[in-house]
Amino acid sequence: MPFVSPLRLEAGCCAIRPWSAGDKAALLRHADNRRIWLNLRDVFPHPYTAAAADAWLSEVATHHLLTSFAIEVDGEAVGGIGLQPGVDVHRLSAEIGYWLGEGVWGRGIATAALRTITPWAFAELDLERIWAGVFATNPASMRVLEKSGYVREGVLRRAVIKDGQVLDQVVYAATRPA
Question: By the 8 A CB rule, do 88 and 96 touch?
Fold first, then answer.
């Protein structure tokens, strides 16, 4: 049975809420962008097709644990933010990731979303640590993490390959407040 939630987190310039089937057009409008794809894992498709949007919206509708969210501005989903909970000895940690449509870059939206979802995730998912891996070619995302209270923990040298290029990955983390 799919997880149903009235969750809506207000974050000032944006809101964080579950994805819905009605987000398809906005998802296609904002996600189909090579500049976004270059900073995300290959599981995020490019080009971002209607079939990809349908598959994503169907997948998140079946999640039993709410961990994938739309970032909404002015009533429209303009990006996404989500957590991947760890397993086994990593069960008190989760990886966080986010993306925004290029048309809303530079407005503090990603920072507001991250600052809002982080305390929610610590409380609701009972986490001790939330971490993010950022391609070394993405200083804007590193700045978002730093402005949101995440600490740079280190660099994984030559750890990822994106678009045929081997890159370093910079690791950031936030821990549960004492």
Answer: no
Structure tokens at 143: 């700045």
Instruction: Look up tokens 């809420």; give the residue.
Output: 17
pLDDT digits (tens, 9 = 90+) for 131-173: 999 999 999 999 999 999 999 999 999 999 999 999 999 999 9
Work out the average pLDDT over 40-63. 96
Is the separation of the CB atoms in 10 and 72 below 8 Å?
A: no
DSSP 89: G
- Nearest-Å Rg of the Cα atoms of the chain is 16
Given a cut of 90, whether residue 93 has pLDDT beyond it is yes
Q: Report d(CA 111, CA 101) in Å as an integer.
A: 14
The pTM of the whole model exceeds 0.90: yes
Task: Take residue 8 and report the two structure tokens written for it.
Answer: 């809506």
Question: What's CA 1's distance to the chain center, in Å?
Answer: 24
Q: How many residues does the chain have?
A: 178
